[in-house]
Amino acid sequence: MKKNRWISKRLGALCLMGIVLASAMSCNTAGKPGSNLILDEDDSEKVVNLFGPMEKSKPGVDNVARNAFDQTISKAEEQLGLTVEYRIYTAENYKEKTYDDVVLDRVRSDMDDFYLLNPDTIQTLGEEGRLLDLSDLDCVENLRDVVKMANTIDGKLVAIPQEIAAYGLFVNKDMFDQYDLQLPNTPEEFLECCRVFKEHGIETPIGANRWWLECFVFAQAFADLYNGGNSEAEIEALNSGTAKYSDYMRPGFEFLKELIDKGYVDAAAAYTYEAIEGEGPDFLAQKTPIVMAYWGAANAETAYGKPDFNLQVIGFPSSRGQMPVVTITGYGVAVNAEHQEDTLKVLEVILSDESLQLYTEINRVISPSKNVQVNCVPALEPLNDRIQDNIYVLASNASMKVEQWGNTCLIVRNLLNGATVDECMAEFDRLQEESLKEQE
Length: 440
Fold this sequence. Notes:
Blueprint: H1 5-16, E1 47-52, H2 64-80, E2 83-88, H3 91-94, H4 99-108, E3 114-117, H5 119-127, H6 145-150, E4 152-153, E5 156-157, E6 165-172, H7 173-178, H8 187-199, E7 206-207, H9 214-221, H10 223-227, H11 231-240, H12 245-261, H13 267-272, H14 280-284, E8 290-294, E9 311-314, E10 325-327, E11 330-333, H15 340-350, H16 353-363, H17 381-388, E12 393-394, H18 405-416, H19 421-439
Parallel strand pairs: 1-2, 1-3, 7-8, 10-12
Antiparallel strand pairs: 3-11, 4-5, 6-8, 6-9, 6-10
Helix pairs in contact: 1-18, 2-15, 2-16, 4-5, 9-12, 12-19, 18-19
């Protein structure tokens, strides 16, 4: 299926919000689109080439995300006696091309050895057969099932991350306590909380932006699919067309429409708000009790890391209770990588439990390894408990023929602009029909 250009921009924006694997629009370096950004390597030195959004940390530069990754890369360089060269993306050098646009071009042109990939590019390149199957790496044995499920295409594990990105509801527990409200588990309980807040003069109970309202949809659409013990069969039914995405998505869209109609979400404001920048000030000022954000926002002082109230991060309401929404990115190796053998050795080091423990301790994120646990801040414990119990839904799954995260975000924005639920469902049907035609 052709990927809409906006999807790449959306995922780039997601990365900009601080999810470690892609501050994709930020670093500075020299270079031109479509060309390598470093000089030819010295043949006497073993080199592996990584294309990504971050340059190596410079002395005296305090960047936690880069420091965590660089330390794992340094371990690989020392153990293997080689150098990992960073080839860098910058929006300035690539003009109108997004990070994802450039990654696609470079992988298709065999320009680098391995790449930091967003979910939509993992899906595209995996379906094109341009990414190596990583299933035989020793580290795969320790991966959580969610990672393998999300990044497996046609039986091949084509990408592995150093962290799992999780989204949840950030709630002001003090405001809930003020009105004797329990934290909601189901859509019905959530609506009741919003009703009480509204009746007590809180004009807009939910602070929303144009990117993350789709998490409400995913939680309700896929709660049973991912937690009912029949995931593979249900996904196959969707891919074959015997089941419809619109049937899964309808309850979530009807829920969002009710939130909008009752004034619990300001649709006009949400459509113009950038994530955290728009709704964040009112949440921190305790004018609204609920927002949605990614895991790292609870750690970042520039986001919600130091609120003046009891912050709790919980899952989105669903028929199965509070439901974390998870996206998976990862490192992929080009099928035609020039230094393929050494590249796989590098991945074995940086994705080992030892390296992932180091990475997790520095960044305080959820590890892809089931053997590595995060020592998270208290606010994140409710969300983390659910994930550790393997309760979650995936918002990005490369085995699904219709791309989920970006397409759903766009259709939610149609709803914010006044589209009916039926019109939104018709768009899902169109996307599914398009994917079925491409499989013929």
